[in-house]
């Protein structure tokens, strides 16, 4: 028997992908499941991006790239960070990664020692918990309840900081809650960070272009005196509907980027040259599609909110950004479905929704906030409407 590492023993598969796989399996078995489990745009990758990838392949851009990314893409990303983030950086301050996910992996592996504490505002993307545990670090959650708009409260942040705190992970617009950063929150966080000069920050801005209410703000630009310990990351997956191209990027302090390049060089030797050429076309091409697509997601958010409003047992706050709804299902806990299934936890609710209503969602506990479920609103209008109708019918039948 092969003995695997402790690292493998403590790493769990992402609940989002696990739920998506179950939905696929049920569909393959002939059941009409609607999957709102995974955070993936249903819209197509823009044609000019696909053409750029095809041309790059024919042009012979088919060799190993530099580990940190091609010069052309690093320049395009530097322009993008200057344009969208108001972070005037050069190509040497940019690292290209296999999806935003690898930027976070590289960054965490570079700074987190075993038993270091990593502060994560909750609810949070499930991927953070996975990577921190993989690195041997300890996730420390700061609850950000719906009453505070799911935003991080500086006093609550200060309260969890210890001498072992190494890293703070910020994600606005937030997956799963949709919360958007405001100036007051970033100022208050900055006040705490100034008192703790050894803490570094990852700002995960992957949903930067998906804001319906409020404006986009990012920590390193809002609070320039902290920029030398903030890694700002984003990518093309969500904004340009390019999840399968696996392309992310980041900027930050030179020494952190150098350490991350070492991690990446150890793991993957850089990112597909074809995907990098495609990303140049996405970032340098017409940006009007970002607002057009944001408006589609806003309409879908409104559709879901309207469809779920007034549903017994369910309370759905209005997401300000990203493409998820994160209703509380507290009113369903302790109740029973018509088939006699007892609902003790959000896991039970997600399980019952899948089995009895044929809608795949993800329980809030996967995002460190039990008592909720997450629905992805990045699905076609008709699928969303049908899924909501099934959820409402399910909730009305609960005893
Ligand atoms: N950060 C957050 C908050 C996410 O929701 C996701 C994708 N679900 C990622 C990072 C990773 O995205 P990708 O690797 O596709 O760029």
Automatic annotation (TrEMBL):
Q: Which InterPro entries match?
A: Aminotransferase_I/II_large, AspAT/PAT-like, NHTrfase_class1_PyrdxlP-BS, PyrdxlP-dep_Trfase, PyrdxlP-dep_Trfase_major, PyrdxlP-dep_Trfase_small
Q: Keyword tRNA-binding, does the record have it?
A: no
Q: What class of enzyme is it?
A: transferase
Cofactor dependence: pyridoxal 5'-phosphate
Q: Which residues form a coiled coil?
A: none
Does the record's keyword annotation contain Repeat?
no
Q: Where is the Aminotransferase class I/classII large domain?
A: 32-391
Q: What Pfam families does the record tag this protein with? A: Aminotran_1_2
EC number(s): the record gives: 2.6.1.-
Q: Which reaction does it catalyse?
A: L-aspartate + 2-oxoglutarate = oxaloacetate + L-glutamate
Q: Which UniProt keywords apply?
A: Aminotransferase, Pyridoxal phosphate, Transferase
Q: Which GO terms describe its molecular function?
A: transaminase activity
Q: Which family does it belong to?
A: Belongs to the class-I pyridoxal-phosphate-dependent aminotransferase family.
Q: Which PANTHER family match?
A: ASPARTATE AMINOTRANSFERASE
Q: What is this protein called?
A: Aminotransferase
Q: Which organism is it from?
A: Acidiphilium iwatense
Taxonomy of origin reads:
Bacteria, Pseudomonadati, Pseudomonadota, Alphaproteobacteria, Acetobacterales
């Amino acid at each position: 028997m092969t003995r695997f590492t402790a690292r493998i023993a403590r790493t769990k598969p992402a609940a989002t992908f696990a739920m998506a796989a179950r939905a696929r399996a049920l569909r393959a078995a002939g059941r009409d499941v609607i999957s709102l489990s995974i955070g993936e745009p249903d819209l197509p990758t823009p044609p000019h991006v696909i053409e750029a990838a095809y041309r790059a392949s024919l042009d012979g851009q088919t060799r190993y790239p530099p580990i940190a990314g091609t010069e052309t893409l690093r320049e395009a990303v530097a322009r993008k960070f200057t344009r969208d983030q108001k972070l005037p950086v050069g190509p040497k301050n940019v690292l290209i990664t296999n999806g935003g996910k690898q930027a976070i992996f590289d960054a965490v592996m570079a700074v987190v020692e075993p038993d270091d504490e990593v502060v994560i505002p909750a609810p949070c993307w499930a991927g953070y918990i996975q990577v921190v545990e993989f690195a041997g670090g300890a996730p420390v959650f700061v609850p950000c309840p719906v009453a505070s708009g799911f935003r991080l409260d500086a006093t609550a942040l200060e309260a969890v900081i210890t001498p072992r705190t190494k890293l703070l992970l910020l994600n606005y617009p937030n997956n799963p809650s949709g919360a958007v950063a405001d100036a007051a929150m970033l100022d208050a966080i900055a006040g705490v960070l100034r008192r703790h000069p050894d803490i570094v920050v990852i700002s995960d801005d992957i949903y930067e272009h998906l804001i319906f209410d409020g404006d986009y703000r990012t920590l390193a630009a809002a609070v320039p005196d902290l920029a030398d310990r903030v890694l700002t990351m984003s990518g093309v997956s969500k904004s340009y509907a390019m999840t399968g191209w696996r392309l992310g990027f980041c900027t930050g302090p030179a020494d952190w980027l150098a350490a991350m390049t070492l991690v990446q060089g150890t793991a993957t030797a850089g990112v597909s040259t074809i995907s990098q050429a495609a990303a140049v076309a996405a970032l340098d091409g017409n940006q009007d599609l970002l607002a057009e697509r944001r408006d589609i997601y806003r309409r879908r958010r409104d559709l879901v909110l309207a469809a779920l409003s007034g549903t017994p047992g369910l309370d759905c706050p209005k997401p300000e950004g990203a493409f998820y709804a994160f209703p509380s299902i507290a009113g369903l806990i302790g109740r029973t479905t018509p088939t006699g299934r007892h609902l003790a936890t959000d896991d039970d609710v997600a399980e019952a929704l899948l089995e009895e209503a044929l809608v795949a969602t993800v329980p809030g506990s996967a995002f460190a906030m039990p008592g909720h479920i997450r629905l992805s609103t990045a699905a076609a209008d008709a699928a969303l409407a049908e899924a909501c109708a099934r959820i409402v019918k399910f909730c009305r039948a609960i005893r």
